[in-house]
Design goal:
With 126 residues, the chain is an alpha/beta fold. It has 5 helices and 7 strands, in the order ββαβαβαβαβαβ. It has a single domain, classed as Alpha-Beta Barrel (TIM Barrel). A 7-stranded parallel β-sheet has the order 1-7-6-5-4-3-2, covered by helices on one side.
């Protein structure tokens, strides 16, 4: 299980972007976080074509499937959808990892028991 953004673990940082122009000002090595697939499809295609690591927030199953199809490194899902989307990821052999945003370290065990690929703390997102 990946634990992203916890002070005890060195991990990737995420930079929220909504336009190609904003990529220039992100720290080197950041995973680009895209929140809205419908408003950012050109940005997603740009990231994919340039080999830039990106994550996509998914509010539903369809968006999670598109995240995988677009070669996202991560799909960040709602807590309620974590188990369902992780099951799809295993069934369809996603390369995209399923990540749940959490607030408290006590939640790590819950998602580990569910077999979720990873968790991310808000502090990892800039």
């Amino acid at each position: 299980m990946k634990i992203i953004g916890h002070p005890w673990v060195e991990s990737e940082s995420f930079a929220q972007v909504d336009a190609v122009e904003k990529i220039i000002s992100t720290p080197t090595g950041s995973v680009l976080l895209i929140s809205d697939i419908s408003r950012s499809i050109n940005l997603l295609h740009y990231c994919e074509s340039q080999g830039l690591p990106f994550a996509l927030r998914a509010m539903d199953i369809k968006t999670a499937l598109f995240a995988h199809a677009l070669h996202a490194r991560y799909v960040i899902v709602k807590k309620e959808m974590a188990g369902v989307i992780q099951g799809l990821a295993q069934n369809y052999l996603f390369d995209t990892q399923v990540i749940v945003e959490i607030e408290h370290e006590d939640e790590i065990e819950e998602y580990a028991r569910m077999g979720i690929d990873g968790v991310i703390f808000p502090s990892a997102i800039k």
